[in-house]
Amino acid sequence: MVGEHTALVDDPQLTVREVPIDWPPIRVVLLHDAAELPADAKLFEQQTPVWLLAATDSRHQWPDFVQVFVGEWSPAAVMALLQQQGIQSLLIEGGSRIHADYLAAGFADHMIVYVAPIILGGQGLPAIWSDQGKAGTYRLVNQTKLGLDTRFELRRTSDVYRHY
User: Is the domain of 74 the same as that of 143?
Assistant: First the structure.
């Protein structure tokens, strides 16, 4: 899943590459107005399921593999929809607002974080490690050096997981 800003600025494909899979994942985009996505977005290049979770209805004629769900999409509402549809896990690729919201809501059980030796700053976007809400505590499962970067894999330490 990605948010509106990531979908519009980065134009991601949200596909699985370099790993064999039995079926493609459902690609989910959380946005205010589905009509904001350009018809030539990379997201639509492959005819695999795309769900647009939008706050407003779109009169746009989408390809058959695209479903638009209209509602108020809090983290809890998204998780409830996924449960109703039989989906048991969600990979949140970005951006930072979605990461912070899901972490604060207590929906992050497993995290993979990449850290590069560069300082990026500004006041516009929240950091993933927000101290708000039910973020919980995590234990380091694995740490891998990737050139100058480091990959951290973390799991929630609590034995109590959310039930949706």
Answer: no
Total domains present in the chain: 2
- Which tokens hold the place of 69? 């769900």
Domain that holds residue 136: 109-164
In a domain, 104, yes or no: no
**14 vs 7: CA distance, rounded Å:** 10
User: Is 157 a member of any domain?
Assistant: yes
| Residue 52 parent element (H or E) | strand 50-56
pLDDT at 96: 82
65 in a structural domain: yes
Rounded Cα distance between 34 and 17, Å, is 26
Contact by Cβ (8 Å): 104, 145: no
List the pLDDT tens digit at each of the 164 positions of the chain: 999 999 999 999 999 888 999 988 999 999 999 989 998 999 999 999 999 999 998 788 899 999 999 999 999 999 999 999 999 999 998 888 888 888 888 888 899 988 889 877 666 666 565 555 556 788 999 999 999 999 999 998 865 455 44
Task: Give the containing element (helix H, strand E) for 145.
Answer: strand 138-146
